[in-house]
């Protein structure tokens, strides 16, 4: 997995969640707090999720085969989608069920210092993990807002870890509030309400992750900046006069497919056209290094067709004025 995959953030989150899961489960055994049980399952699910992200990154590095000629880059998207399913089912639905049961059959929290102490420790550990994820994300998100970064990132690992850690911190605060209110009022229902809130939060985060990773699985085009760089690199004004239409597709977070129909001079020889295509491919790879798979088809630009706008092959990212051939 490349650095942009956020390996440090994943490993930091994995270590923190394993330690927290053990501490929370011990606190549940001594106190009987349903918030602690829900949180221990949540942390255990998060640990499994980080393991899935690391496994997906490893599998994505496999070489292309005749059966999979474009490689295995999308494995990272598949495992990120599995994370959302685990977070929804194991984390969210379990917490909702446990919260409902605790509200229906409340009981007082015993040995209150166990859950309170563990929650404080967990907030510190999750804060460290969240800080690591933020630091790695800042290296790649540029001027994007956090919302834009999560929506536009092509490498799924950092958005997943960011949302998991954010949800974990909010969940810990909710658990602490539930335990505190249960202790202050002597009514165990508050512990159940806190658990129910944790489950609802996890389900919302899982739905957001599922929606974003589904878009990546379906296949997303290159970002606007990359498309502009590719267009500028293709046209040299001499042999390649314009792009008739173009499509891009992410084969993985760090692998981009570029397919374009380009206009060449009508009196160019086959050798000149071949040399022009090779030169254009070299310029594309220099401008956008992740453009690993490039297909350029030469054609003669037709002014009449462009004016009529009748070309059915015009791509969504192409200039309508450049659609004739």
Automatic annotation (TrEMBL):
InterPro entries: Cation_efflux, Cation_efflux_CTD_sf, Cation_efflux_TM, Cation_efflux_TMD_sf, SLC30A9. The chain crosses the membrane at residues 6-30, 77-100, 112-134, 155-183, 189-211. Its main location: membrane. It is a multi-pass membrane protein. Keywords: Membrane, Transmembrane, Transmembrane helix, Transport. The keyword Transit peptide does not apply. Gene3D superfamilies: Cation efflux protein transmembrane domain. This is Cation diffusion facilitator family transporter. PANTHER family: HUEL-CATION TRANSPORTER, PROTON-COUPLED ZINC ANTIPORTER SLC30A9, MITOCHONDRIAL. The keyword Flavoprotein does not apply. Residues 11-218 form the Cation efflux protein transmembrane domain. It is found in: Membrane.
